[in-house]
Amino acid sequence: MLSENSMSITRLAYDKITMISQDTMNLYLNEAPREFEDSIIVERIWYDAIDDHKSLMYVHLFYFKNTDKYLLRVVNQVTDKGGEYFLTPISQLNPVGKRKNK
Amino acid sequence: MKYTLLIVFLLSLNVQAQKIVSVSRILEVTSVSYNEDAKDIDFDTIPIPLKTLNPKIIFTNDQLQIIDSDTTYINLGGPSENIEDSVWIKSDWSEADLSGTLYYITYYQFKDRNYNEVVIMNAEDNLGYNYKLALLKMDIIPTASSVSSAAKKKSN
Q: Mind telling me how many Å the CA of A59 is from chain B's nearest CA?
């Protein structure tokens, strides 16, 4: 779970990104992303994501290794308009299938 | 106390046994039927509307789960018979079971397409569905721990 500020949160999952800020917006990630990585950044790009209204969206997720922060860029493919969200991790669940055995 | 420990042990065995093999987004569903005369499957071209925006198919080692609002569990009934050629890897389960009914399941992993297909056919009435699937990758969100463990692997 990641927070953009104290009032809004964004949940990142492998199949869905949920952005909660007064109302809730879902982005359904319909494919495995393209992946890029260098010493500073990890980038994931989903080209076939859709929102709650079935509008096709580009979703770019950047993870900055040095600061442990994220930048989420969401662009509507028809209007070419969108937004960028700077995110700070507030908790990270264990990845699915990698639960620690006690 | 002994029985409680036994139940916990058996439950933990069950959790370990059911391992997720893949998760895929359902892109499209169409009806299919087996044509006895042609000895081939007839594919309907009109898609069946999906119930949600987040439909998934999860393959575990022994079960197929179809999740779209509700969840359908199909027990695979044993290992698959695999055939590979230049176009696809085809996996067949001929003894799958959905609520006591025999089902045939065929999973096509295409080599040159960015989607796969799974055909689920009722063995009694020869009717079923074809699911067009896009493979999703779990553990894809980078985190501080995943990045550091990947860096450790590289250095080793």
A: 13
The span from the CA of B18 to the CA of A80, in Å, is 43
Beta-sheet strands, E only, within A1-102: 2-5, 8-12, 16-21, 23-28, 34-37, 41-51, 56-64, 69-76, 82-89
Task: Please write the tens of the pLDDT for every residue from A36-64.
Answer: 999 999 999 999 999 999 999 999 999 99
Domain assignments of chain A as residue spans, ordered by start = 2-91
- Closest-CA distance, A9 to chain B, in angstroms, reads 16
pTM of the model: 0.81
* Min Cα–Cα distance to chain A from B148, Å: 9
User: What ipTM does this complex have?
Assistant: 0.77
Query: How many angstroms separate the CA atoms of B116 and B101, rounded?
Result: 25
Q: Is A14 on the interface with B (CB under 8 A)?
A: yes
| Residue of B108, B151, B48 whose CA lies nearest to A38 | B151
> Are B56 and B70 a contacting pair, CB within 8 Å?
no
Identify all chain B residues contacting A32, using CB atoms and an 8 Å cutoff. 134-137, 140
Chain A residues touching B19 at Cβ < 8 A: 97
